Amino acid sequence: MGKELRGGYTTGACMAAGVKAALLYRAGEYCERLKLIALDGTPLEIPVKSIEETDDGVRVEIVKDAGDDPDITNGASVFTTVRILPSGSGIIFQAGEGIGTVTKAGLSVPVGSPAINPGPKKLTEQVVREILGDNAALEITVSIPAGTELAKKTLNPVLGVVGGISVIGTTGVLRPMSEEGFKNSLLPQIDVAKAAGYDTQIFVPGKIGENIAVKFGLPREAIVQTSNFIGFMLDAAAERKIKSVLLFGHLGKLAKVAAGVFHTHNRVGDGRLEAMAAYAAAEGLPADGVRRVLAATTTEDAMPIIEEYGMTKVYDILAERASLRSERHVFGELSVGTVMVTLKGELLGMDERAREIGRGFHWNIE
Q1: 261-309 per-position pLDDT tens digit
Q2: Alpha carbon of 279 to those of 155, 255, 285, 328: distances in Å?
Q3: Distances (CA, A) of 116 to 73, 102, 119, 126, 353
Q4: Cα separations in angstroms, 148 against 71, 76, 105, 197, 206
Q5: Who's near 2: CB < 8 A, 6+ residues apart?
């Protein structure tokens, strides 16, 4: 039995804890550790690194502890400055250094607002009411100085959150990231692209596919990164009434889809070389060529064999098959086209539906 993974707390919990420490400090109580009840009822105990009075109010530093979760903000300092406002002003949240601003519709935060999600705000407001009552009036400014650089390693640039990281967390409790949690973190991309007017979207496995798609003239605003969860993201697109999807990516990933594999991590599903070999054989690839494809290490390794035998038309066939399997996966609730490329960004193959979608985007692939 593996060891139980240690949980932690979110950046939103850090903000709420900072506010609590600041308000208690104003009341004459200096806390080195404080208790916080998360929105799901989980008790949290959070250390306070520093508290100081500044010209702007009381400033508290909390260090993010993600537990055993591979969270990029683990160990980052979250600074919260609390300033009392005139009665009736309510609770105002401000973005400090390293906190992003929302620039695209489709997220849970309005355009133009600090990227502070509803969960952290609710948790913080709960803390304020406990100490000051329902008529509290204060300004809360949260800063994560490392956030500007950290944001580059997240989906924030894709989602239209610019200038820094988001203050996130549904409840305040951070449990080691499950696969389900990671999959759900990908979904806002679909909503943002739809809010921007794209009911036809471009699904790419990752950043490499995105950059190649943009090179071919496809709009970055319509691009959604799926990671290995192509089937999950297709289902989500169908639920959101997306009209059509262009699968755009490397042969190695999309050949798996042609084989009916919709979770493309190599430890979950593969079949890429088998798919190449089977469809090439159906088009006349000799047995020796089939064996060589099956013995290849990667699809890039197999490509020279396909070219040697003059079988490059198999890429169009694989693309058509990937589209067909995808449409079957969502029971025909959206249409799918597929474009397959190399790691260098060279076009290998595509089906007719992909051509139709591409023309709608005025791409320069043909």
Answers
A1: 999 987 788 899 999 999 999 999 999 999 999 998 889 889 999 999 9
A2: 36, 10, 9, 19
A3: 15, 9, 8, 15, 40
A4: 15, 12, 21, 28, 21
A5: none
Spatial distance between the Cα atoms of 238 and 201, rounded to a whole number of angstroms: 11
* Residue (of 40, 163, 177, 37) closest to 103 by Cα position: 163
Q: Which of 125, 141, 121 is nearest to 133 (CA)?
A: 125
- Using DSSP bridges, classify how beta strands 335-341 and 244-250 pair: parallel, antiparallel or unpaired: parallel
Contacts of 105 (CB under 8 A, 6+ apart): 111, 192, 195, 196
DSSP SS3 for 107: coil
β-strand partners of 347: 341
The predicted-structure confidence for 207-240, as pLDDT tens digits, reads as follows: 888 889 999 999 999 999 999 999 999 999 999 9
Rounded to an integer, what distance in angstroms lies between the CA atom of residue 104 and that of residue 189?
A: 11
Q: What is the CA radius of gyration of the chain?
A: 25
Q: How many CA atoms lie within 13 A of 101 on its CB side?
A: 9
Cα–Cα–Cα angle for 296, 301, 304, rounded to 5 degrees: 110
For 294, phi and psi rounded to 5 degrees? Answer: -65, -25
As a residue count, the chain comes to: 366
Q: Are 262 and 238 in contact (CB under 8 A)?
A: no
Phi first, then psi: give them for residue 244, nearest 5 degrees.
Answer: -155, 160
